[in-house]
Amino acid sequence: MMNTIRATLSPAGTLSFDDPVRITAPVRVLVTLLDEQPSPVRLTAAPVAADVPAASESSNTRMTDQARANVWNHLLALRQQAIEKGMPLLDWDQIHEEVRERRGGRRDD
Q1: Residue 17 — pLDDT band, cuts 50, 70, 90?
Q2: Residue closest to 19 by CA, chosen among 33, 32, 4
Q3: Do 15 and 8 contact (CB within 8 A), yes or no?
Q4: 15 and 9 in contact (C-beta within 8 Å)?
């Protein structure tokens, strides 16, 4: 089964995955180079033993690959709808500012 996993490829050839990746054996991959800049925050995933759950996963909250793909596809569809309606997309600084404002933060400037 094929899965799409977002990552950033450094000039040195190191892949830094956006989310933790669990594999139990070597796997072949296809890499598509996107025409976009990576976001500033990246997680570097190291191979994890098959019998050790990822820190954010427990047996009753683990999201299946299909569920994760469904969420991702839904978010991409919402993003496309926003673009088609001419809504401006926020960068990371704008997102953090909006979250701060919604949480009742005040300006320090």
Answers
A1: confident
A2: 4
A3: yes
A4: yes
